[in-house]
Amino acid sequence: MSGLDVTAISLRLGDVWVLREVTIAVGSGEIVALLGPSGAGKTSLLRVIAGLIEPDAGSVTWDGHDLRGEPAHRRRMGMVFQDALLFPHRDVAGNIGYGLEIGGERRSAIAARIEELLELVGLSGFQHRDVATLSGGQAGRVALARALAPHPRLLLLDEPFVALDRDLRDRLGAEVRELLKRLGVPALHVTHDPHEAALVADRAITLAPSGDGSSIVAT
Predict the structure, then answer these.
(1) Taking a C-beta distance cutoff of 8 angstroms, is the pair 60, 68 a contact?
(2) Which of 81, 85, 163, 164 is deepest in the core (most CB within 10 A)?
(3) Cβ proximity of 140 and 84 under 8 Å
């Protein structure tokens, strides 16, 4: 299968098994929602996929290539967190261009990419805005643009709308789906909200803890 394959991932933090033999897949251009309650291991699974945590067992592959030992910055996966986590000392353009800067892109190419993304997320002209002045929805759009800037092959979304009210969550969810489909970027979208999963994703997977500490995955 082209795209992401996560096979029999197990992860233990201290004496607690956070994930046990979790297997999921995200196909090319597909948006998959990962549903589950708090404590089910959803965020931990995203961190394993991104290369931020090394699992105790199992494999993560992309187009059949095993990513074991490959550092996060080489996996080409963008991540958007629950809180936008924008850099407060950088303006909007500085946040969006951060990944391109550390990747050594030319200044002119960075400026062009920032302008392109701001138009895509509906924030044209916001380059020099102080991020402290942004609304929750605007901050979320900037975080999404920052994650998309380096042309990721997969986007990992960790409940990016959880702090927003329902109307704004629905609006941003629909916008994110439309944008990812237009760009052809596959995504794994973590949420505890079935309504949000149905709005954003092509299909949903449920991740839930069982009584013996293992993880149950139900498609």
Answers:
(1) yes
(2) 164
(3) yes
